[in-house]
Amino acid sequence: MKIIRNLDHIKSKYINPCVTIGNFDGVHLGHQRLFEVVEQRAYHTRGTSIAVTFDPHPLQILKPGGIKLISTIEQKIELIELSGIDILVIIPFDRQFAATSAESFVDEILIGRIGVRDLFVGYDYAFGKGRAGNIDFLKKQGQEKGFSVTVIDAYYKNDVIVSSTKVRELVAEGRMVETSELLGRYYQIRGVVQRGKQRGGKEIGYPTANLHISEEDLVPRRGVYVCQVVSDNVCYGGVINIGYNPTFGEQTLVAETHIFDFNRDIYGKPIKVNLIKFLRSEEKYANIDELSSQISRDVNLAKQILAETAVQGHRLVW
């Protein structure tokens, strides 16, 4: 997949461009269905499949603090590439760009730069200043300016509309099984392993890899989860506690991951953690022995769940 981050780098219009526009936060099953339709059309017209998105997310500029993202731009790029799209256009979004009218966007970018022939959008998508670029506007523009507009209906999974808003809700509630059903994969957090208090191995008997989590980001429900940890392209089982470590009176939100059958030094190195299932809420224990005993029970249950998950063959995106 070719990535374009500057519209000036598009030197000529593409061959039969089949285009979709969106924020695609989380790249959930609904987005994946949209990409699939775009790719099918491009295949039949011998054209080019193109996704257009924005960075940062428009709401991060227009309404700071008004949205907690499911995926980073790096994750979004990886997931869109996995979908098979030929070209990803990432438009830098700022207040100046936000003032662009919907018609200017169509004329200058979709037609002037890309040369759109077929446009595909989700059933609820709108863009441009004041969100004037809605479905009716696009259909009228297409009729006047010579490109087709196809609206993709809402995608349902287990009678639930798949949407980024619903995914955020499920993540915040710790409902990781339902989250994975809407994403088509496990929800993942990433980070660089930090050097913590180092109590896990020395005092408790369960060493952890610690990741900093910002309160401003999408934070799963506080508590303990079964997880998979990807380090240096190898996947391990584990348990992760997301919270404040109340037994020790900590005040900083952190994700502490105990990785099974793992003894490497990974301080300062990146890891990816797939959250598979919520086990229990974070609790305060009277002493270290009680905490250690509970972690032991968590580990045994997590290993059982991971074994069952492996048999079920759930999709893993590293």
| Beta fraction | 25-35%
Structural class: alpha/beta
Distance between the termini: 18 Å
User: Order of helices and strands, N to C?
Assistant: EEHEHHEHHEHEEEHHEHEEEEEH
Oligomer: single chain
Compute the number of helices: 10
* Mean pLDDT rating: 91
Radius of gyration: 22 Å
Number of separate strands: 14
Structural summary, described in words:
The protein is an alpha/beta fold and 318 residues long. The chain is 34% helix and 26% strand. It has ten helices and 14 strands. The protein has a six-stranded parallel beta sheet, with helices on both faces. Strand 11 (223-231) and strand 12 (234-243) form a beta hairpin. It is elongated, with a radius of gyration of 22 Å. The two termini are 18 Å apart. 34% of the residues are buried. The mean pLDDT is 91.
List its salient traits.
single chain; 318 residues; alpha/beta; six-stranded parallel β-sheet; 14 strands
